[in-house]
Amino acid sequence: MNKAKERPDTPCVAVCSTGMGDDVCQGCQRSMLEVAHWVMLSEAQKEPIWQRLEQYWADQGQPPPWQKRGK
């Protein structure tokens, strides 16, 4: 199956710490700028971010937190 179709609209998991001064969100691991500009990014611009985040969580030995939403 196409990975993009398995993804939600955003990697946000409502645990954002960028509003509290963190440069990287502790919930999803996006940078403050990525969080702020997400809705303005094209799918092509989002893809490398998705890939980096998926690799980050794989390296942690955990599923991405957005896969846990709604469970």
Tell me what you see in this structure:
This protein is mainly α. The chain is 38% helix and 0% strand. The chain is globular, with a radius of gyration of 12 Å.
In brief:
The protein is 38% helix and 0% strand. The chain contains three helices and no strands.
Count of separate DSSP helical elements: 3
N-to-C CA distance: 21 Å
Shape: globular
What is the overall pLDDT average? 87
Percent of residues in β-strands? under 5%
Give the % helix: 25-40%
Describe the sheet with the most strands: none
Instruction: Quickly give the structural class.
Output: mainly alpha
Which regions are unreliable across 5 or more consecutive residues at pLDDT < 50?
A: none
Task: Provide the succession of SSEs.
Answer: HHH
